[in-house]
Amino acid sequence: MATIKPFKGVRPPKSLVERIVSRPYDVLNSDEARAEAADNDMSLYHIIKPEIDFPVGTDEHDERVYAKAAENFQKFQNNGWLVQDTNEHYYVYAQTMNGRTQYGLCVAAAVSDYMTGNIKKHELTRRDKEEDRMKHVRVNNANIEPVFFAYPHNDELDAIVAQITRREPEYDFVTADGFGHHFWVIDDKATIERITQLFAAMPAMYIADGHHRSAAAALVGNEKRLQNPNHRGDEEYNYFLAVCFPDNQLTIIDYNRVVKDLNGLTDNEFLAKIAEHFDIEDKGTNIYKPARLHNFALYLGGHWYSLTAHPDTYDDHDPIGVLDVTVSSNLILDKMLGIKDLRSDKRIDFVGGIRGLGELQRRVDSGEMRMALALYPVSMQQIIDIADSGNIMPPKTTWFEPKLRSGLIIHKLS
After folding, report:
1. What pLDDT is stored for residue 399 in this prediction?
2. What per-residue string of b and e applies to 181-218 under the rule 16 or more CB within 10 Å gives b?
3. pLDDT digits (tens, 9 = 90+) for 62-85
4. Quick one: which of 148, 296, 262 has its CA closest to 214?
């Protein structure tokens, strides 16, 4: 069962929301955050990327930077830029991309569900990144940014959300990237109670995006439980902020690779090795996008190639072995190019599909990279199969779009 509860959200007044909300902390660097927050004291970057308030080059992990986050969070509340709701609510957060809208429920998810595996993950986390986010949660005593969950779609929940979203939204705006963001407050007690019951009947929820934030939020909540001799179990720190979307509404886009060299091979030698495991078709100079599972696009020497994996290179009965990221990592990146660790090897970089395949071509044509490999996106069902089987996806497999905006809603731990 999935345990959730309503909470007293901390959020901007309607008139200020567009000045406050920001992209998530981990999709841009300090310089980009500094530029986006320029001349805007209300930008959430002052809380989630507080190094922008220090001289350029200041280490974002400096203790003074974490302290500044807490100072700014308090300032935002003192100034009325962020205000806590009087009562506990659930909230609907909908996002529109390319004319298509997905509807998420903002909830407080149970730390215990994360600890026991009822909230399922499909990616490994790095301890240094966990520790960074744990410090941020501790110092603010709040989950400033939500994590992105998927749940098994449910017709009754869809109907409840459809009824709520027929009302005028609390927030409704379009960001510079063209994505629409829409937000409603659920204040009917019977509806709140029914949502809680429907989640309780679910076997599990799945982390779609935000594995480090999930781990950090849960670990801090668990710390607070252990530190409290009078722990009851209903304290706010037993929960963390999540936006939960039905699995059939989510869009996963491709997550592609660019590589700096061919490990000493010429273009022709590399293509000859590729041909041992793939059917190759030269597509010329026009961009080629993978058409289906086990089909790849290679950009090399000014040409695009279609690569179709031979049937003996994948295992459709193995949740990991079926993945194109596994096939390409094992046969091309490791076996041919000697790239063993996708997390640490400096010869490889990763490009989210939101940037388009033209970005792959640009980076190769510029001479920065030698070749690019585009993959067919994984499906939500593949993610669920892997999480349910207790397996972990290879690094850099999933790219969800649109990203959740930060600053629409915050969850305090006390």
Report:
1. 85
2. bbbbbbeeeeebeebbebbeebebbbbbbbbbbbbbbb
3. 999 999 999 999 999 999 999 999
4. 148
